[in-house]
């Protein structure tokens, strides 16, 4: 059973496998909109059923024509809150145009999946304020004349909450369904989400077709994030002028953040990051990862001065993405944290293209080799593997992963150099960058080798590629002719995984593992 946890102010706190709770014991320093009415004086979070939802937010205005909804979205500068930040008005316009051009019906999709361990904001909304999200989705559906609204989620408690909210609405003029999808990082990618909602395996298609052209059931589809629809519902009630009373002029309103992987916080756009961290009881530490595991690290100095809006973050090469704010405390090893995340991201591959299925594990291998003291060769391998996967994937996962690795290296060059050349930092990996299950450092996951095991070369097959020396340094030593110096090499326990990798990747299939007595 998922137990609610507690937070501070209007922070909802949780581990990723628990239901966020919201505490009102400390008055929030800014007003809540999306989370209004959720906090209680007793320090818990309360789910807003239909009646308390209407008492808190009021009724929606009558159905808005499409032109008015587009104008409202433009006037408030509403953008997608799931990562890409695409202007919502342009999405609406594209779906309308595609529907008119093809003469077909349209559909609306709510992306309520959160495959990233550091994000909980959509979970908080759908658990505690599901009617606000449904209000926005139904408002858009009526404006588009859509006959289907599909909500995609991954957690069973979230699915239950949304289904209860749908039942409270009673009969509707549109089909409104909730589908639970596999919980993995790529589930939220647009084509993967649509594929899952249509009964497929929920994998990215690899085709550059926008959902506004061909989405759910092949129909022009408005696809956006949970928070985006909730913001639309708030804006419809407040009007453009009322909505713009908080936030910065170019990006008005509020935003939802997940701080340190445990706290969901609503704040006005333009709020100083330092104030958010202070309110949630933390600081910038060694740096702050903004935008999640496809995001960018800010230095402590930047984190103390930057404000949370698109223009300010862009000056540091960062975007807010899905709203994850992950500070690295002083006591953890940045290089080990980054390597653990890179390994997890490699495991979250859809396995449909070479850059994902092969390139990301190889990148994670290279980064782990750096952490273990692999020297200049390991550092060069990270650079090479990053270049090899960039802009070549069927979806954005390889690009995002290589960007994360590059940002970590740029933010902590001394840490990676110290590890690569054998010194290390002496600090443990605390799991400050949260991952499902154990966040043990990479070295802890290396299986022990059988005693007296050898890596053996078949001379009838070997062609002197030399890859084995790169993959198993210290085990394989090349002679002046570029071939291994020995046909059978003793294998230390710590090198078993590297040797297995060399066996798998030898272009000539000339390597194998053999017990010493064999």
CATH architecture of one domain: 3-Layer(aba) Sandwich
| Strand residues, percent | 5-15%
Mean pLDDT: 85
The unreliable regions are 1-15, 20-27, 438-451
**Shape designation:** elongated
CATH top level label of one domain: Alpha Beta
Radius of gyration: 25 Å
* Helix-and-strand structural type: alpha/beta
What count of helical segments does DSSP give? 18
Number-wise, the strands total 16
**Biggest sheet: strands, sense, closure?**
7 strands, mixed
Q: Strands of the biggest beta sheet: in what spatial order?
A: 2-1-10-9-13-11-12
Question: What are its keywords?
Answer:
7-stranded mixed sheet; single chain; disordered N terminus; Alpha-Beta Plaits; 38% helix; Rossmann fold; de novo design (two linked rop proteins)
Describe this structure in words.
The protein is an alpha/beta fold and 518 residues long. Among the domains are: 50-237, NADH-ubiquinone oxidoreductase 51kDa subunit (Rossmann fold); 337-445, de novo design (two linked rop proteins); 453-515, Alpha-Beta Plaits, CATH 3.30.70.20. Helices cover 38% and strands 13% of the residues. It contains 18 helices and 16 strands. It has helices at 50-57, 66-75, 88-102, 121-128, 130-144, 156-169, 190-197, 226-243, 273-279, 300-305, 310-314, 334-347, 354-371, 375-389, 397-411, 413-420, 467-471, 496-505, and strands at residues 11-13, 21-22, 107-111, 148-153, 175-180, 221-225, 247-248, 251-252, 254-259, 263-268, 287-290, 296-298, 324-328, 453-457, 488-491, 511-515. The strands form 4 sheets. The chain has a 7-stranded mixed sheet. Strands 5-4-3-6 form a 4-stranded parallel sheet, sandwiched between helices. A 3-stranded antiparallel sheet has the order 15-14-16, covered by helices on one side. A hairpin with a 2-residue loop joins β7 and β8. α2 (66-75) packs across α8, α5 packs across α8 (226-243) and α13 packs parallel to α15. The protein starts with 10 loop residues before the first strand and ends with a strand. Mean pLDDT is 85; it is low at 1-15, 20-27 and 438-451. InterPro entries: ComplexI_51kDa_subunit (IPR050837), Nuo51_FMN-bd (IPR011538), Nuo51_FMN-bd_sf (IPR037225), Nuop51_4Fe4S-bd (IPR019575), Nuop51_4Fe4S-bd_sf (IPR037207). It comes from Streptomyces ochraceiscleroticus. This is NADH-ubiquinone oxidoreductase-F iron-sulfur binding region domain-containing protein. Belongs to the complex I 51 kDa subunit family. Residues 335-379 form the NADH-ubiquinone oxidoreductase 51kDa subunit iron-sulphur binding domain.
């Amino acid at each position: 059973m998922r137990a609610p946890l507690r937070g501070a102010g209007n922070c909802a706190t949780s581990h990723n496998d628990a239901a966020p709770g919201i505490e009102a014991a400390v008055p929030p320093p800014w007003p809540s909109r999306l989370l209004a009415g959720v906090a209680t004086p007793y320090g818990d979070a309360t789910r807003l059923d239909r009646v308390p939802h209407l008492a808190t937010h009021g009724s929606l205005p009558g159905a808005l024509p499409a032109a008015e909804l587009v104008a409202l979205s433009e006037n408030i500068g509403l953008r997608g809150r799931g990562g890409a930040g695409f202007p919502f008005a342009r999405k609406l316009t594209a779906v309308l145009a595609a529907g008119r051009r093809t003469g077909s019906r349209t559909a609306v999709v709510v992306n309520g999946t959160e495959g990233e361990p550091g994000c909980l904001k959509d979970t908080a909304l759908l658990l505690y304020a599901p009617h606000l999200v449904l209000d926005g989705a139904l408002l858009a559906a009526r404006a588009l004349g859509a006959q289907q609204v599909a909500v995609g989620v991954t957690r069973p408690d979230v699915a239950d909450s949304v289904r209860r909210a749908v039942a409270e609405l009673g009969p509707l003029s549109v089909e409104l369904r909730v589908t639970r999808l596999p919980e993995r990082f790529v589930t939220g990618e647009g084509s993967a989400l649509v594929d899952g909602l249509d009964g497929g395996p929920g994998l990215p298609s690899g085709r550059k077709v926008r959902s506004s052209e061909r989405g759910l059931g092949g129909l022009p589809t408005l696809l956006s994030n949970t928070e985006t629809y909730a913001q639309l519902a708030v804006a419809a009630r407040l009007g453009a002028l009322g909505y713009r009373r908080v936030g910065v002029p170019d990006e008005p309103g509020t935003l939802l953040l997940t701080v340190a992987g445990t706290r969901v916080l609503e704040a006005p756009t333009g709020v100083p990051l330092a104030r958010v961290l202070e309110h949630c009881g933390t600081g910038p530490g060694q740096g702050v990862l903004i935008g999640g595991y496809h995001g960018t690290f800010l230095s402590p100095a930047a984190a103390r001065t930057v404000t949370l809006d698109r223009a300010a973050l862009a000056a540091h090469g960062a975007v807010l993405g899905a709203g994850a704010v992950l500070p690295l405390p002083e006591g953890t090893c940045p290089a080990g944290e980054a390597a653990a995340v890179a390994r997890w991201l490699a495991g979250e591959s859809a396995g449909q293209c070479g850059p994902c299925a092969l390139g990301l594990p190889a990148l994670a291998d290279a980064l782990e080799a750096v952490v273990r003291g692999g020297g200049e060769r390991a550092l060069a391998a990270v650079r090479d593997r990053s270049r090899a996967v960039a802009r070549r994937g069927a979806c954005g996962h390889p690009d995002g992963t290589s960007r994360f690795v590059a940002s970590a290296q740029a933010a902590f060059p001394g840490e990676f150099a110290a590890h690569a050349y054998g010194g290390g930092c002496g600090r443990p990996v605390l799991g400050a960058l949260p991952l499902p299950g154990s966040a043990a450092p990479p070295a802890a996951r290396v299986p022990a080798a059988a005693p007296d095991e050898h890596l053996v070369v078949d001379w009838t097959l070997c062609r002197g590629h030399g890859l084995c020396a790169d993959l198993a340094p210290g085990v394989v030593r090349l002679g002046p002719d570029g071939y291994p110096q020995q046909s059978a090499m003793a294998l230390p326990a710590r090198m078993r995984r590297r040797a297995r990798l060399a066996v798998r990747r030898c272009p000539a299939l000339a390597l194998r593992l053999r017990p010493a007595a064999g």
